[in-house]
Design goal:
Elements (H helix, E strand, L loop, with lengths): L30 E4 L10 E4 L3 E5 L5 E8 L19 H9 L3 H11 L14 E7 L6 E8 L4 E8 L2 E9 L6 E7 L5 E8 L3 E7 L2 E7 L11 E11 L2 E5 L2 E7 L1 E10 L11 H12 L4 H16 L3 E3 L10 H7 L6 H18 L25 E2 L3 H5 L1 H5 L7 H22 L9 E2 L11 H4 L4 H16 L2 H21 L1 E2 L6 E2 L23 H21 L3 H11 L48 H14 L5 H13 L3 H11 L16 E2 L5 E2 L6 H14 E2 L5 E3 L10 E8 L3 E8 L2 E9 L3 E7 L10 E3 L34 E7 L4 E5 L2
Parallel strand pairs: 25-29
Antiparallel strand pairs: 1-6, 2-3, 3-4, 4-5, 5-10, 6-7, 7-8, 8-9, 9-16, 10-15, 11-12, 12-13, 13-16, 14-15, 17-26, 18-19, 20-21, 22-23, 24-25, 26-27, 27-28, 28-32, 29-31, 30-31
């Protein structure tokens, strides 16, 4: 087994005051750039093509590419459910309904711990190193990640020679490519070698360096993933040869390094593919292209997604500073471009980690350097995996939702065994985690793991996709997933003894507790569960109606909907998190699960449910702003839905606080941002990046509450700007320009046609032909809003929807494929 760990130490000498090739004040290019190499993984720069990921360190003397492939996981095909997994559920229900919550938790802690495993680990492949001589005293150093091209670059001078590296993970050729050049001929000399912590071997064969490996055993499951990495170097001039398990290149004019990685994974129950054959196939095709063609094809493919959205809120001379310095100074500087960069970096990460036909991004996307990753780098589906896809529809990346949908199909199969063995129920279910092998049983301690709502929440993405695209064929294909999820809950809902409501039991409000000083989470009828059930039953029924099927089943759903527990307002004027009024004003928990009904759902509205709207805001004010990275991303969305742009911006400022790096950290606890712009939970979790990107979009455009709301939560810090290409429900692509916080230009492209209802906070005074003030219900079905059941209002509840600005709704009759442009004052 190769167990080589190399610690890279590098000191730059004579760094120029202005880094070579750095940004200029007038350069609005979206780049993360630095004037020194990465000192650690959280300073390295991520590249990816959906399947292959690498972290680029940029050391002149010894480049390191830390390598990942999306299907390199520990263990193999398995189920983590047994016949004994749900044996204690009847007893738990009885104790919960008797109000014996501590006894129920104690029983769950003993009897409901996973009977087999808690899921497998997403693991690294290894590293590629490129060793260079004579570069220890490099100067005029510069490295960047250009997220407009998905291209990493390193430049420096050494011995009077200017060197350049270009590195990308090719979308079109499915290999990693490194291009090495110099400004004088015959100056490219280096050694390329690999290592891994996996059980593996390194050898030479014909014209390539081969690294093969077998992933680790974990929690009783034998490692079954075999991976193969193949490296080939093509040199122009000089000499390239394989020696002593390394590529040796001497005196070349330039060189291109190709890295191909593949595994034996076919699907969650089949690992019979030939990893070496797959890797060789990718490599053989890639080396036939010249470098310029390969780079151009890669950029063209990437930009078909990235260029759909433009966001400009100004640029200052802050762009002349390295990105880590900009992050450190953000809260006290005028740097609107950094917000736009962070927003687009989230889109870059989604494009780079979620391509159609691939796996969904994990807790860390496709970038992980640890054999035992934090939380196993699995799919945590009580918030994190869902958050990964919040930007997909609204930021015009709808196709990239596909890996999540494919995983849902798998889970709707594997989850049937769990529904039957654990609950004696029809349909399918998952709990709060899953992995490459699509496990669906409880994971980890019952305190967090006994939550049978993960598949429910994931299924909401199916309806969201339909609402944005109007794709009825898609709805037909995935309707069985929705129906199967609904069937499970129809079978397992229990009648609670007080109000005779139908509730899920046992469950929890994700990872939060309600008995002061004790770790008691087990409950029945939590608010989030009820909200999720309301959405699932409503949306499954609507899907069946649209498809003209299952009339009897629709009736069952309607009956159950009428018996679900309503949202309730508690003794502190808060939206209750639990069916019983157990909230505390000092609860600062990172999960704010009971506000799911506000975002990403649309059950809470300032106009339709003002009492709930006010109660939800009261809850969030009690919960406070400080949080982990992903939680702050969620809160940006909450405050945008509260139509409070300044508070949402305050959360963005909290998120963009530097964690680690050469600049003294101004944020040592809670969330923040690493020097490479990765979200700091800490440690790194990618959902924080995605959540904040979605939140920024939500500040600019909302379409969940019966209309397309233009600039609903514009902060004072963005007085002028423009955004192009955001998407609203109903298939509308919207461009907005504004000056001094007043809309000056609005363009609406209708993909589907139909009535477009626009909600605008400022008066429209010019060139509005074709618009009429809205009257009555919106006939466009994509703007349907739920009829939320009336809550139980406590005597302390008050109606005060503060911060809700006056707005006017206008109707626009549209035809599919046509754009409508308005100038506004």
């Amino acid at each position: 087994m190769m167990m080589i760990k190399k610690h890279l130490v590098f000191v730059l000498l004579a760094v120029a005051s202005l880094a070579f090739g750095q940004a200029k004040k007038t350069d609005g290019t979206l780049k993360l750039w630095y004037d020194r190499p990465a000192a650690n993984w959280n300073e390295a720069l991520p590249i990816g093509n959906g399947r292959l990921g690498a972290m680029v360190f940029g050391n002149p003397a010894k480049e390191q590419l830390q390598l990942n492939e999306e299907t390199v996981w520990s263990g193999g095909p398995n189920s983590n459910v047994t016949a004994a997994s749900g044996a204690a559920i009847p007893a738990l229900r009885k104790l919960i309904f008797e109000g014996k919550f501590e006894e129920a938790q104690a029983l769950a802690d003993v009897e409901m711990f996973p009977k087999k495993n808690s899921g497998m680990i997403y693991q690294p492949v290894g590293n590629l190193f490129l060793e260079f001589e004579g570069t220890e005293k490099a100067r005029n150093y510069y490295r960047d990640l250009n997220i407009e091209k998905a291209l990493a670059t390193v430049t420096y001078e050494a011995g009077g020679i200017r060197y350049k590296r270009e590195i990308f993970s090719s979308f079109t050729d499915q290999v990693l490519i490194v291009r090495l050049t110099a400004d004088k001929p015959g100056k490219i000399t280096f050694r390329a070698l690999m290592d891994t912590e996996q059980k593996g071997g390194l050898r030479m064969e014909k014209d390539r360096l081969l690294l093969s490996g077998l992933t680790a055993d974990h929690e009783g499951e034998q490692g079954k993933i075999r991976f193969a990495s193949q490296v080939k170097v093509v040199a122009e001039g000089g000499k390239a040869s394989l020696q002593n398990n390394a590529w040796i290149v001497k005196a070349a004019n330039s060189a291109t390094v190709y890295v191909s990685i593949a595994t034996n994974f076919k699907n969650y129950h089949d690992v019979s593919a030939d990893a070496g054959l797959k890797a060789a196939s990718f490599l053989d095709r890639a080396v036939k292209k010249n470098y310029a063609e390969a780079l151009a094809a890669h950029i063209k493919f990437y930009q078909q997604y990235f260029n759909r959205v433009k966001f400009d809120i100004g640029i200052t001379d802050a762009v002349n500073k390295p990105t880590d310095e900009r992050i450190a100074a953000f809260a006290r500087s005028n740097d609107p471009h950094l917000t736009a960069l962070y927003f687009q970096f989230g889109r870059y990460l989604l494009i780079s980690s979620s391509q159609p036909g691939n796996q969904p991004p994990t807790l860390q996307g496709i970038w992980n350097d640890k054999m035992l990753a934090p939380w196993d780098s699995k799919y945590t589906i009580n918030i994190n995996t869902e958050m990964n896809y919040w930007p997909a529809e609204v930021t015009n990346l709808s196709e990239l939702h596909d890996p999540l949908f494919k995983m849902l199909k798998d889970l709707s199969v594997t989850g049937r065994e769990t529904a039957k063995l654990m609950y004696g129920a029809k349909g399918w279910v998952t709990h709060h985690n899953t992995d490459l092998w699509r496990i669906t049983g409880p994971v980890d301690r019952p305190y967090a793991g006994l939550w049978p709502m993960g598949g429910n929440w994931l299924s909401q993405h199916l309806w969201d996709h339909y609402m944005f695209t109007g794709d009825k064929q898609f709805l037909k294909e995935y309707y069985p997933v929705l129906k199967g999820a609904s069937e499970f809950y129809l079978d397992v809902l229990q009648e609670e003894p007080t109000h005779k409501w139908l509730v899920v039991s046992p469950s929890n409000s994700p990872e939060n507790t309600y008995v002061p000083g004790k770790r008691v989470s087990i409950a029945a009828g939590t608010t989030m569960d009820n909200q999720l059930l309301f959405d699932l039953f409503t949306r499954t029924g609507k899907a069946a109606e649209l498809l003209g099927m299952d009339a009897e089943f629709r009736g069952l759903l309607k009956t159950a909907l009428g018996r679900l527990a309503p949202m309730q307002i508690g003794k502190y004027s808060q939206l209750q998190e639990w069916m019983h009024d157990s909230d505390r004003t000092d609860d600062k928990h990172r999960h704010v699960s009971h506000l799911y009904g506000l975002y990403p759902s649309n059950q809470i509205s300032p106009t339709r449910t003002p009492e709930l709207f006010d109660a939800a805001r009261t809850s969030l004010m009690y919960r406070g702003d400080p949080a982990t990275g992903w939680s702050m991303g969620w809160k940006v969305n909450f405050w945008a839905r509260f139509l409070d742009g300044n508070h949402a911006y305050k959360l963005i400022t909290d998120q963009l606080k530097l964690v680690g790096g050469r600049v003294d950290s101004v944020n040592t606890k809670g969330g923040g941002t690493y020097p490479n712009m990765f979200d700091a939970h800490p440690p790194f979790q990618i959902d924080g990046n995605f959540g904040c990107t979605a939140g920024i979009a939500e500040m600019l455009l909302q379409s969940h509450d019966g209309a397309i709301h233009i600039l609903p939560a514009l902060p004072d810090q963005w007085p002028s700007g423009e955004v192009k290409g955001l998407v609203a429900r109903g298939g509308y692509v919207v461009d907005i320009s504004w000056k001094d916080k007043v809309i000056t230009h609005l363009k609406v492209l209708s993909r589907l046609g139909g009535n477009c209802r626009l909600r605008i906070n400022t008066d429209m005074k010019a060139d509005t032909t074709g618009l009429s003030v809205a009257k009555g219900e919106n006939p466009n079905p994509f703007y349907e809003v739920p009829e939320v059941k009336s809550p139980l209002i406590s005597p302390l509840a008050k109606l005060n929807p503060a911060g809700v600005k006056a707005s006017t709704d206008y109707d626009l009759k549209t035809e599919a494929g046509k754009a409508y442009i308005f100038k506004l004052n």
